[in-house]
Amino acid sequence: MAGTSSTFRATTTWDSHSIRICASRLLQQHSSGGWGACASRLVGGTLTIHQQLENRFAAFKHAQAALLFPTGYMANLAVLTTLATQGDLICIDKLTHASLIDAAQSSGATVRVYPHGDLAKLRRLLSRWHKQFTQHAPIQALSSKTDMAPRLPRALVVTDSVFSMDGDLADLPGVIALAREFGAISVVDEAHGTGVLGESGAGLCELQGVSGQVDVVISTASKALGCLGGIVTAHKLVIQTLVNHARSFIYTTGVPPMQVVAIDAALDVIRDEPQRRTRLQSMSQYLIDELIALTRKRNAGFTLMQSRSENYESRMTTPIIPLITGSAESSLALSKRLRERGFLAPAIRPPTVAPNASRVRLSLRCDLGDEDLQKLIKALADD
Question: pTM for this one?
Fold first, then answer.
């Protein structure tokens, strides 16, 4: 969301100074190469800076190894189509990102979608699968797929950490506990948690104290990092399996060097400027408090998400704040009104969200000022 009194503030993360820093790094670290990787990773397109970034990102995520993809979509596709196939089971939260739904359906595995955040339903799905097979293939058995030998059926549990349209948080300790109880592989998409949550910005896994317990974590560089790319972090055996069998890794050109150094520079910002996260979370909570007060006082033309917990105010700590309008027409009207007041807040309509759940999606940035928030609140309060 961008706000200003006269026009839209630039929504790009990188200013000209940051771009110059990245360009300088590229010249220093990759002076003999071109602007592209020039080949797929397995046939000459793996550069030293790829490996350096992957090592750094693995450490950032408290994982053994990492693998860089051109986009988050390609990373999601790689994980689910490589780790699951016909005869396997994928249990996936209903509100998980569409790219993971696509990947699950492309894998050939049986896909079971459980109601959002419903761990009781997830337990029933896993229990039914577990009873069907007296033995199962845990994460340690991935070598059997690497060797292309017959293996036992495998189950995956897939969820976002921060849900992109609702902005709420997954119960990762609960999800992981169920996955472990039934011998399933846990897969968490940290697209909207990375750089925003956790003491070091590593995401919801860090915030909820489960770093190193999730089997596979998928992150993107296109959100808080302001770049482009997908990064999978996991046990080195998982990463090696992806290198050897993930088609969306094998059959595409390696990530361009400029993209790599931009991600590296963004990690510097996450490490060196924790005040950005503090500011973002304080702004989010302040705006939520103000919107709660506004909707309790009068009909504002929108409602806030109903919390799954009793205390809504303490639930939302993310910068994604949906304003539920119901109809697509009303969401478009509210989005247009905010745009006229200088705020970019897109209308989200079916099929992205369920029928009668259209909304305007606010997404805050740490560089918004207090005056921007006040103008936004006033714009929402005005008929």
Answer: 0.88
